Amino acid sequence: METQQWMVWDRVMRISHLYTGLFLVPWMTVYALSAFCLNHSTWFTDSLKLAPKWVVVRQATYTADATFPKLPEEQAVVLLRHLDLEGPHNVTGTPTAHQLTLWRSCATGNYRITWQRQNSRLLVEQQQPASFYSFVNNLHFMRGYPQPYLAPRVWAVVVDITAISTLIWVISGIWLWVRKPRERRLGGLCLASGCLLFIALAVLLCR
């Protein structure tokens, strides 16, 4: 009976390890590639000239009337709707009575939108050039729970699933290692060396 219970847990660990990994292949690939790109950013920005720069892509006008909101967060929604750029965003800097600056997240190139109230001018800038380097980096930092938009919220849910699945992989990996006596010596050496290296680097990086 006890052996059967262990076998059930073995199966649960194998299934969770396998199928969460298969489901999350695209996301784990994005985070792996973007982490590599961020760690070696000079290869892409200096050698390949892929460092994103702000380029003016559009100019428009918007004149505030009596219905224009007073809160910057609500003003941002109105301005983005006027530009047909509704999506995940946040107000940057300190809004004033004369100027409001927005950051509009976009995987192919983030937008910076500046509204100058005194002359009703809307300046839309975008990070260019668009490249695979900027694409994976922008996806890496995409977040969405504070935003009332479907795609960013679904992305945020999958990111949570990725984080939870990573913990599941760690737990299930240790479980599967413990359940294989032939692997215990080499696996224990890998586990101990990884933990010791992590502790040593964490101590040095805190100095």
Describe the structure.
The chain folds into two domains: 2-45 and 150-205, no CATH class; 53-128, Double Stranded RNA Binding Domain (2-Layer Sandwich). The chain is 56% helix and 16% strand. It has helices at residues 2-23, 25-39, 41-47, 72-82, 132-140, 150-178, 184-205; strands at 53-61, 89-92, 99-104, 111-116, 121-128. The longest helix is centred in the last third of the chain and has 29 residues, at 150-178.
Provide a quick synopsis of the model.
With 207 residues, the protein is an alpha+beta fold.
Which descriptors apply to this entry?
alpha+beta; 2 domains; single chain; Double Stranded RNA Binding Domain; elongated; five-stranded antiparallel β-sheet
Secondary structure elements and their pairing?
Blueprint: H1 2-23, H2 25-39, H3 41-47, E1 53-61, H4 72-82, E2 89-92, E3 99-104, E4 111-116, E5 121-128, H5 132-140, H6 150-178, H7 184-205
Antiparallel strand pairs: 1-5, 2-3, 3-4, 4-5
Helix pairs in contact: 1-6, 2-5
Strand content is: 15-25%
Quaternary structure annotation:
single chain
Number-wise, the strands total 5
Biggest β-sheet: strands ordered side by side in the sheet? 1-5-4-3-2
Classification by helices and strands: alpha+beta
Percent in helix = 55-70%
Q: Report the uncertain regions.
A: none
Tell me the distance between the termini: 52 Å
What order do the SSEs take from the amino end to the carboxyl end, as H and E?
Answer: HHHEHEEEEHHH
Please state the average pLDDT score.
90
Total separate domains: 2
Taking the sheet with the most strands, its summary is: 5 strands, antiparallel
Tell me the overall shape: elongated
Please state the CA-atom Rg, rounded to the nearest Å.
24 Å
Tally of alpha and pi helices: 7
